[in-house]
């Protein structure tokens, strides 16, 4: 005679209660007690993107730690896992470590940030009177233009204000490729670049410099963009084009923090929104965390689908 199984009713009821009260998606969080380490690089836009990602990861249930890193050295940290993810990687200026780590599958590119970008040579718009023919690059070779941009440290060449030396110098290569009579002079920092642009605009002092967008300074200064000279070689060292901006993670990230991996794959940043936040931080002196929190609190309809996707 077959016996009916004896069910532990109390145990089943307890299990159902626990399941009902378990946080959504908790099974996919992975190592939620180990912090996800995000690098803070040298520019405010990246700080904004990183802190938006960080606050959303915290909403999902993770611990987040922000670590100071350099634009090129960060890839060594990503390769060995001491940095977990970098959410704003400009692919036109990654240095030597990135391609090697990518080829060795120590890091993983998880897709575009969808950040509409611009990069190249800019000048205050009044320069079009000083160098007739701008924005075409050939106008920069005219003697009156070179002379206007010449300084004691660069004479007889004109002065080209370049990125800080640790960011790399594609402009110096392009100037040499096209035999342009200019000397690339590295700036000290992003702040120094902006200060020179603002000073040139205020004093109507000639200036030619390397710059990028989105950036709050472009909303407050009237600039033109040079139509760039031809590329001697179709490589990142010899060309400046609007860069792609992607998200990169340590190769073990997805296995260790599964829901975070999905969230960061979904994560996007709008350039205009980023620029507004940069203006509030850099120009108005507002706190980074507070500015980002205000945006996050006011844009739930944008990021909630990313959270929902990560919880599935």
Keywords:
312 residues; D-Maltodextrin-Binding Protein, domain 2; three-stranded antiparallel beta sheet; 14 helices; disordered N terminus; transmembrane transporter activity; Glycine betaine/proline ABC transporter, periplasmic substrate-binding protein
Describe this structure as you would to a colleague:
This is Glycine betaine/proline ABC transporter, periplasmic substrate-binding protein. InterPro entries: ABC_Gly_betaine_transp_sub-bd. Residues 35-297 form the ABC-type glycine betaine transport system substrate-binding domain. The chain is built from 14 helices and 10 strands. The protein is an alpha/beta fold and 312 residues long. The chain has 2 domains: 31-115 and 244-311, Periplasmic binding protein-like II (D-Maltodextrin-Binding Protein, domain 2); 118-225, D-Maltodextrin-Binding Protein, domain 2, CATH 3.40.190. The chain has a 3-stranded antiparallel β-sheet. Strands 8-5-9 form a 3-stranded antiparallel β-sheet. Strands 1-2 form a two-stranded parallel ribbon. Helix 2 links the parallel strand 1 (36-40) and strand 2 (64-68). Helix 2 (44-60) crosses helix 11 (258-266) and helix 2 (44-60) packs across helix 12.
Give me the secondary-structure topology.
Blueprint: H1 9-21, E1 36-40, H2 44-60, E2 64-68, H3 74-80, E3 85-90, H4 97-103, E4 107-112, E5 118-124, H5 127-130, H6 143-149, E6 158-162, H7 170-177, E7 182-186, H8 190-203, E8 209-213, H9 217-220, E9 223-225, E10 245-250, H10 253-256, H11 258-266, H12 271-283, H13 288-298, H14 300-311
Parallel strand pairs: 1-2, 6-7
Antiparallel strand pairs: 3-10, 4-10, 5-8, 5-9
Helix pairs in contact: 2-11, 2-12, 2-13, 11-14
Domain ABC-type glycine betaine transport system substrate-binding: 35-297
Protein name: Glycine betaine/proline ABC transporter, periplasmic substrate-binding protein
GO molecular function: transmembrane transporter activity
């Amino acid at each position: 005679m077959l016996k009916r199984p004896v069910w532990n009713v109390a145990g089943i009821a307890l299990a159902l209660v626990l399941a009902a009260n378990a946080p959504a998606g908790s099974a996919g969080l992975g190592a939620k007690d180990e912090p996800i380490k995000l690098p803070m690089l040298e520019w405010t836009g990246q700080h904004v993107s990183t802190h938006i990602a960080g606050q959303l990861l915290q909403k999902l249930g993770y611990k987040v730690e922000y670590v100071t890193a350099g634009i090129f050295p960060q890839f060594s940290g990503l390769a060995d896992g001491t940095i977990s993810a970098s959410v704003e990687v400009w692919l036109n200026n990654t240095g030597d470590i990135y391609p090697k780590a990518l080829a060795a599958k120590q890091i993983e590119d998880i897709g575009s940030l969808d950040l509409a970008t611009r990069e190249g040579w800019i000048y205050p718009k009044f320069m079009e009177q000083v160098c007739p023919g701008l924005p075409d690059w050939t106008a920069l070779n005219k003697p009156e233009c070179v002379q206007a941009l010449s300084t004691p440290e660069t004479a007889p060449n004109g002065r080209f204000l370049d990125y800080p030396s640790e960011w790399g110098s594609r402009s110096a290569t392009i100037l040499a490729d096209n035999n342009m009579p200019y000397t690339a002079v590295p700036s000290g920092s992003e702040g120094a670049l902006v200060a020179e642009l603002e000073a040139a605009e205020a004093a109507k002092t000639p200036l030619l410099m390397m710059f990028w967008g989105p950036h709050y300074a472009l909303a407050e200064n009237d600039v033109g963009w040079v139509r760039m000279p031809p590329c001697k070689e179709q490589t990142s060292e010899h060309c400046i084009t609007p860069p792609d901006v992607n998200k990169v993670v340590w190769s073990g990230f997805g296995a260790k923090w599964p829901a975070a991996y999905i969230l960061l794959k979904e994560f996007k940043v709008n350039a205009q929104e980023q620029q507004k936040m940069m203006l509030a931080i850099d120009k108005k002196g507002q706190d980074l965390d507070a500015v980002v929190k205000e945006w996050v609190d006011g844009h739930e309809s944008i990021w909630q689908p990313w959270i929902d996707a990560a919880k599935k």
